[in-house]
Amino acid sequence: MNADMIAMIYAYTAVGVGVILAAAGLGSAIGWGLICSKTLEGIARQPEMRPQLMVNMFIFAGLMESFPFIILAFAMWFLFANPFVGALQAAIQAVGG
To answer: What is the pLDDT of residues 43-69, one digit of tens each?
Structure first.
């Protein structure tokens, strides 16, 4: 196991984490847009339902906001406690004896 292999693992992990975080941010933004647009459509159709629709919107918006933070926690785990380096060391030890 040399330093180049470990550096490649960390580099590929960083690229993967960037893609994961970008996808989580994009998904959250699309979710926010859909939640707000459907709430506005519902209010336009039935204005008397506005309080109930707003409560539902904020509940679902809170759920939508939690998704990127959960993904961020997984991304930090991949960056700082990289499980792939340990797997590489175990594989090299298994092959080497």
So the answer is: 999 999 999 999 999 999 998 889 899
